[in-house]
Every structure is written in structure tokens, then in C-alpha cells.
Amino acid sequence: MKRTAFTATIDQLKEKIINGEWPPGSRIPTLQQISKELEVSVPTVREALRTLESQGNVSIEHGRGMYVRNDPLLLEDPTGNLKELEDISLVKLLAARILIEPELAALSAEHATLTQVKQLRELADRMVQQMEEGGPFLDTDLAFHRLIAESAQQPVLLRMMESIYPLLSEGRKHTNTLPHMRTKASNYHVLIAIAIEERHSDQARQLMYHHINDMLEALKK
């Protein structure tokens, strides 16, 4: 399975900690420096570091910088207990997502910071542009859903979503090939971002539900 730039970046950053290039307590280079070194976009680096932060491996301190934690949680694979789910069907994955992500969208509308709201809109607009240009947008899609989970301020649910990201990544490759699904998905993202920006939690919940349900129903046909 070909790794996305997002998952590959996470692995490369973890390796820097494992091999001692970034020792515990050390300051991490800037997003721009890492982006140049790894030859990936700054948004990809930012989301990869946020993933490592949620896993307890790095600390992002606004205004001070980014640091390797003194007690990184052994860089354990969050999907280690999900290996038995590698053959799970896409229908079952979407059925599970529809139980969780609409509520995360509603909570995001209630708790997202102004910065997170702005980032969500930027990701949604970027996905529309990438789709129109015919370029890849899988990383942008995943970053959008991850930021919603993060901004909901429910760390347990965030960790649950983190644990199935590899499954989500593979699932997106299939759902994006469904008729008109890429256009519908990008439009849903914009509408969800607007609902969150306007603090309409019920609307955000319903839009996320219909976004996932559209994919689910298309696969059932």
C-alpha cells in the first residue's frame, strides 16, 4: 500500500526522535525547515506534528516553539491494537464514522477556536481548488476531518479517530472514485466549515451526517 505524504511524514518525524536526532526536551525545527528537508508542504508537516502531539510525543507551545517531550510515550503505534481490522469493509468503516463524526462536528461548532475555524475554512477552500485543478487532495481531506476532531476538545474521541486514520486514508481512495463524490465531498466540506464558523452545531452535525451517509449509500448500491 502506497503511503500518503501525511503518513510518511509522521513516520519520518518519529524516526528523528527514535534515532536521537531530536532528543527528549529538544526544540524542534520550524515548519518551514522541516518542510524543506522532507520535501513536503508546510500544512502536511503541521498536521503530522499535531498528530504526534495528540499521541504525547511532542509539545506545541504557541509563542514558544515545538519541543520533543521529556517523556515521549515510546512512539507507540496507535493502530497496534487494530491490526485485526485491516480487512474491515469500507461500509463498516463508514457506518462507524457516522456514529462519531457528526457529533464531533457539532462539538467543533461549540468549541473551536477562531484560529481553528479559520484553518477549517482554508482547508475546505483548498480542497475545492485542488479538485478543480485535478490535483491530489487526500491529505487536505484527512487534515480537515482531523482538525474537526481536534477542535471538538474531546481527547478520547480524538485518539479514537487517530487510531483509525490509516483505515480512513485507504477508504478515501475508494470513496473518491464514486460518481460525483469528489465534487459533493468538497462542497460538503465548505458547508461544514461555514456551519462551524457560524457556531451552528445542529447544522454542522446534520451536514457531516449527510456527507458520510452519501458515501455509505453509494457503496450499498
What do you see in this structure?
The chain has 221 residues and is mostly helical. The protein folds into two domains: 5-68, Winged helix-like DNA-binding domain superfamily/Winged helix DNA-binding domain (Arc Repressor Mutant, subunit A, Orthogonal Bundle), CATH 1.10.10.10; 79-220, GntR ligand-binding domain-like (Four Helix Bundle (Hemerythrin (Met), subunit A), Up-down Bundle), CATH 1.20.120. Helices cover 67% and strands 4% of the residues. The protein has helices at 5-18, 31-38, 42-54, 90-111, 114-133, 138-151, 155-163, 165-175, 181-197, 201-220; strands at residues 58-61, 65-68. A two-stranded antiparallel ribbon has the order 1-2. It is globular, with a radius of gyration of 17 Å. The two termini are 26 Å apart.
- Rg estimate, integer Å: 17 Å
How many structural domains?
Answer: 2
String of helices and strands = HHHEEHHHHHHH
Note the gap between the termini: 26 Å
Mean pLDDT: 82
Overall geometry comes to globular
Total helical segments: 10
**Biggest sheet layout:** 2 strands, antiparallel
Q: How much strand content do the residues show?
A: under 5%
Q: How are the strands ordered across the major sheet?
A: 1-2
- Please name the fourth-level CATH homologous superfamily of the largest domain: GntR ligand-binding domain-like
User: Helix/strand-derived class?
Assistant: mainly alpha
